[in-house]
Amino acid sequence: MIIRRLEDIEGTARAVTGDGWHSYRLLVKADGLGFSLHDTFVHAGTTLQLWYKHHLEACYCLEGEGSVEKLADGEIYELRPGTLYALDQNDQHIVRAKTALRLICVFNPPLSGHERHDADGSYELSPTDSAD
Fold first, then answer.
1. pTM of the model
2. Which has the closest alpha carbon to 63: 104, 22, 101, 21?
3. CA 68 → CA 34, 38, 111, 113, 131, distances in Å?
4. Average pLDDT over residues 93-106
5. Which tens digits make up the pLDDT trace of 35-68?
6. Looking at the DSSP assignment, which residues form a beta bridge with residue 84?
7. Average pLDDT over residues 116-120
8. What sections of 26-113 are H helices per DSSP?
9. Rounded alpha-carbon distances, angstroms, from residue 106 to 88, 126, 129
10. Cβ pair 35, 27 in contact under 8 A
11. Rounded to whole angstroms, how far apart are CA atoms 49 and 94?
């Protein structure tokens, strides 16, 4: 059994910060569950263009207001508490935070925890990973 608290992660390598966001990597690849789980905060006013071309991601909004835009068709979906969006086609997308957003995010294959977004908004895939 794995028990972790945010307070245990703060100040460690599992607390990752990027431009306009910070994330607590609650579960990572080394935990051996086949997915990773993140408590992610997107700062108010932030716009993130992302493309997880090597990962599937699902996000559940706990707090805040914003939107996610699917770039393939320009469709925009509002985000508010209780909303889930899943990028089941490795969708290129834009997340816009009207207010501070708090999202619980799940990645498959799991992130190792140290990743930072590449220039195209993706995370690199380790040679030993697969999306299967």
1. 0.85
2. 101
3. 26, 18, 22, 23, 23
4. 98
5. 999 999 999 999 999 988 888 999 999 999 999 9
6. 60
7. 56
8. none
9. 12, 17, 16
10. yes
11. 4
